[in-house]
User: Which sequence fits this backbone?
């Protein structure tokens, strides 16, 4: 109903404009255009792979939480109050971590948004720039997207400028590739460089190496931190197991003492 209302409003507006002067209208099929831009399909495949990986991580965390809940429900009758609270706290921590990961991956400013912005948006911008350029050159008053939510009750193929947009994108790509080739050809051979130019190149290479070293150092530091956290967690688990063992032994001893008292009585 909402779509029909939108179409009626647009038709009414177009009719209003038509009474003043002739309007030139065109349309594009955005899905068709993007499917025929190789860079977009590569970017979309990369994004889909990352999304599948993130969803898999969340599924693993969720299954682990369900296992912890099930184990607690089965063991609750034989656990002490402290151990029950400890397990409940562990489950709560895992649930908070799961929500944090969900937000990190799929939140408003999460990884999916950032990766899409990095990979897909530049290509979409390229398409929109091509549309605007063609619309300005051909003097179109309106350019509609056939694949959007707007319902097109009829569309004449001669007003479809999708192929024109693709041709414009191809020309831009070829122009950029040509410039890149010219720049490569215009590079000065190493033997023709002056000593000062060679020194500058060497300084830049050293700066790059230092930057790489700094990044590698940060990676190693992060690895060391992760190892330290893992060791700390292992120690905590070991201590918990020891406490549980002590509690079990204490429980057995108390049970044995109670049975001994009953036999004496």
Assistant:
């Amino acid at each position: 109903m909402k779509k029909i209302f939108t179409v009626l409003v647009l038709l009414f507006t177009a009719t209003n404009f038509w009474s003043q002067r002739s309007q030139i209208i065109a349309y594009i099929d955005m899905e068709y255009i993007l499917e025929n831009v190789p860079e977009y399909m590569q970017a979309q495949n990369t994004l889909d792979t990352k999304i599948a990986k993130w969803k898999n991580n969340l599924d693993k965390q969720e299954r682990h939480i369900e296992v912890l809940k099930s184990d607690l429900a089965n063991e609750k009758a034989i656990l002490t109050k402290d151990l029950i609270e400890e397990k409940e706290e562990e489950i709560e921590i895992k649930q908070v971590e799961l929500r944090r990961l969900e937000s990190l991956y799929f939140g408003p400013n999460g990884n999916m948004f950032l990766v899409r912005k990095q990979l897909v948006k530049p290509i979409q911008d390229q398409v929109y720039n091509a549309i605007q350029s063609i619309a300005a050159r051909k003097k179109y008053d309106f350019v509609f997207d056939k694949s959007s939510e707007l319902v097109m009750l009829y569309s004449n193929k001669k007003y479809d400028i999708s192929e024109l947009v693709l041709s414009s994108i191809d020309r831009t790509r070829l122009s950029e590739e040509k410039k890149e080739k010219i720049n490569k050809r215009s590079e000065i051979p190493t033997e023709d460089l002056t000593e000062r130019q060679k020194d500058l190149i060497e300084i830049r290479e050293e700066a790059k190496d230092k930057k790489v070293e700094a990044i590698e150092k940060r990676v190693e530091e992060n690895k060391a931190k992760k190892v330290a956290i893992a060791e700390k967690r292992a120690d905590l688990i070991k201590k918990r197991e020891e406490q549980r063992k002590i509690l079990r032994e204490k429980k057995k001893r108390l049970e044995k003492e109670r049975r001994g008292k009953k036999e004496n009585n």
